[in-house]
Amino acid sequence: MKNLNFIILKALEEFDNKNKIYRKYIKEDDISFDRDKLTIKFNTLNKKFKYQNLGAFETNTDLWIWAWMMPIFKPNEIQLSIELLNYGLKNYDPLLSKDGSSMIENEDTFFKIQLVNSRFLITRQFQLDLLLSIIQFLLKDKILFIYKRRKKLSENKFLDFFYLIS
């Protein structure tokens, strides 16, 4: 469990650092996508990056949905999301206690549980930050930062889409 705590602290620290470095892009609203070229352009900043869809968070129901679960995305837009799923599925072997209940005894089991559930509840902002920091930690040098774009569904109901920017 010590190793898991260390990894979580390290992931949160790296997430915070990347958010500081890429703050001007993270705060930018004037963007455009080229879904054929998989690019996102930060129009005001006149800068383009490659992107992949990560998932979405429905703010009214507190539900996280992985991009690999959403039929609106093309396969080439969700390759990293699928890579995270495959990481979770690979060697998935939850540890069982003597009474048969699941136990989280190591970092691989913890990460895998997060990655293989197609939908799950996130009731606190810290849980979302933790999930995003773990994703960024696992993908290491494959991404620069995670970008959030909010879409209004109706009055007081929003869907936050998350993009992996490289």
Based on Cα principal axes, name the global outline. globular
SSE ordering: HHEEEEHEEHEHEE
Percent helix, as a range, is 25-40%
What would you call the quaternary organization?
single chain
The number of helices is 5
* Mean pLDDT over the residues: 89
What's the domain count?
A: 1
Task: List unreliable stretches of 5+ residues.
Answer: 96-103
Distance between the termini: 32 Å
Give the biggest beta sheet: 7 strands, antiparallel
Share of residues in strands: 25-35%
Estimated radius of gyration: 17 Å
Strand segment count: 9
Structural class: alpha+beta
For this entry, give a set of tags:
seven-stranded antiparallel beta sheet, alpha+beta, globular, single chain, two-stranded antiparallel sheet, 166 residues
Task: Quickly describe the structure.
The protein is 36% helix and 30% strand. With 166 residues, it is α+β, with helices and mostly antiparallel strands.
Secondary structure elements and their pairing?
Elements: H1 2-21, H2 23-26, E1 31-34, E2 39-42, E3 47-58, E4 63-66, H3 79-89, E5 95-96, E6 102-103, H4 107-116, E7 119-121, H5 125-139, E8 145-154, E9 157-165
Antiparallel strand pairs: 1-2, 2-3, 3-4, 3-9, 4-7, 5-6, 8-9
Helix pairs in contact: 1-5, 3-4
